[in-house]
Amino acid sequence: MKRTNLKWPALAVLVLLVVVAVWLLYFRHPARKAPAVPPGTPVSAVAAKLADVPVYIDSLGTVTPTRTVTVITQVNGILDSVDFKEGQRVHRGQVIARIDSRALEAQLVQAQGTLTHDKAALANAQLDLQRYRQLIKVGSITQQTLDTQTATVNEDQGTVVSDTGNVKNLQVQVSYCTITSPVDGVVGLRLVDPGNYITTTSTTGVAVITQLQPATVVYAVPEDYLGQIHRAMSRGAVAVLAYDRDKKTLLSHGTLLAVDNQVDTATGTVKVKAEFPQSGDTLFPNQFVNARMQADTLRQIPVIPTAAIQHGTNGDFVFVVGAGNKVALRNVKAGPVSGDNTAILDGGVKAGEQVVTDGADKLDNGSAVRVVAATPAGASGASGASASATAGASGAAADAQAAGASTAGASGAAASSAASAASASSTSSAASPASN
Q: 270 and 380 share a domain?
């Protein structure tokens, strides 16, 4: 009986310890609540800013060489040698081919001999004429003899002139046997091989030389832009940019050279030519390029990311974040595009106002929003990813906190179960001696 009385104080102490443990778990360290997420749809927004926006007229153009020369022989003969490599850069006056000139050189020597002979005959006739003029004074010869000698001198002078022309002609013919480049440029593929007999009637030629510097680009623009182009030309040189077919790589800078004098009635366009003096090897003859002609510049106009502009049945619109984090739908008139930004022409957006760049598909006029990422202009794509990542991180944090609370609850329940089991065990142990 005495042993049983000692068991009850021990059981009371154990129960007290369990109560203290439960109090420490639930009242001293309550489960942390997840922070409240602000209401509204998460979006990314960018503030509109003022900037100078160039106005371009885009068109597809063709690179045209300054000059294209087909080198054709001016004398008949055997092509002796070709003194160029295909694709080689040649200079004006550089020898590119030679024709066998031996026959023409022989004719030249013969003509020079005839000229020397006729010059001697002319000199003798001039001396006889001087003697006859002295003899006529003393009556030794008749006037007819003097007149005949005068005519002979004139005839010999004509013969000498004719011989001189023949010599010069043969000299030119011999010089034609050495074919030189008429321009600075690039020679194309060889059109005839050495050893062939070439004639002046052939239209194929020996080679084709293309002058690449400065390069020109010809493109057509709608006739509606003629006013803008003429106003731009009146202000000075008009800048033209040449891009590749994908409009990604800038090939060269140039200026507007000329505008055609008439409009093509079939297409309603006018041809324009631009010159690129420092194009190097980036512009090749007959290459297709995208020409961008700067017709004007809009000064200090509001610009927003192109991703912020939405398209609807009533035209283009944007969502502007206003007071109370509510968006307002505004119709806008989009202007020229510069990079990732677009100019707003009608004043629908003011500088400093925030426009939604990501998440607009879930909004309507007056919708409540929560700006989770404010990105600089031109980085709207990155802002969308940032917004999604931020929202995902917030959800993950909330889930983790909720999981922590559940873990704490489970720990408290486990402690309570352990206490109950201990109590039951103690009661059972205390009851056993009593039964004994």
A: no
* pLDDT tens readout for residues 280-305: 888 989 999 999 999 888 899 999 99
User: Is the Cβ–Cβ distance between 95 and 179 less than 8 Å?
Assistant: yes
DSSP character at residue 183: S
421, with CB counted inside 10 A (0-12, 13-18, 19+), is: exposed
Q: How far apart are the first and last CA of the chain?
A: 11
- The answer to whether the CB of 208 falls within 8 A of the CB of 71 is yes
Cβ atoms 318, 348 nearer than 8 A: yes
| Amino acid at residue number 50 | L
Task: Kindly state whether residues 238 and 334 are assigned to the same domain.
Answer: no
Residues of the chain below pLDDT 50: 1-2, 377-436
E-assigned strand segments in 285-340: 288-305, 310-312, 315-321, 327-331, 334-338
CB 185 within 8 A of CB 67: yes
Q: Does residue 421 form part of some domain?
A: no
User: Which residues have C-beta within 8 Å of that of residue 323, sequence separation ≥ 6?
Assistant: none
Q: Last residue of a domain, which of 176, 193, 228?
A: 176
Question: What local confidence, expressed as pLDDT, does residue 26 receive?
Answer: 62
CA distance 390 to 377: 19
> Which H/E stretch holds residue 150?
helix 143-176
Distance in angstroms (rounded) separating the CA atoms of residues 319 and 368: 11
Cβ atoms 43, 360 nearer than 8 A? yes
- Tell whether 123 is covered by a domain: yes
Number of domains in the chain: 4
The answer to whether the CB of 107 falls within 8 A of the CB of 94 is: no
Domain extent for 265: 59-65+210-297
Residues with Cβ within 8 Å of residue 434, at least 6 apart in sequence:
4
Please list the residues that pair with 39 across neighbouring strands: none
Does residue 229 belong to any structural domain of this protein? yes
Count of Cβ atoms closer than 10 Å to residue 328 Cβ: 14
pLDDT attached to residue 338: 83
11 CB neighbour count, 10 Å cutoff: 15
pLDDT of residue 370: 87
Kindly give, in sequence order, each residue whose CB lies less than 8 Å from that of residue 431, ignoring residues fewer than 6 positions away. Answer: none
Other Cβ atoms closer than 10 A to 178: 14
Q: Which residues contact 236 (CB under 8 A, 6 or more apart)?
A: none
Q: Which of 269, 267, 272, 278 is nearest to 233 (CA)?
A: 272
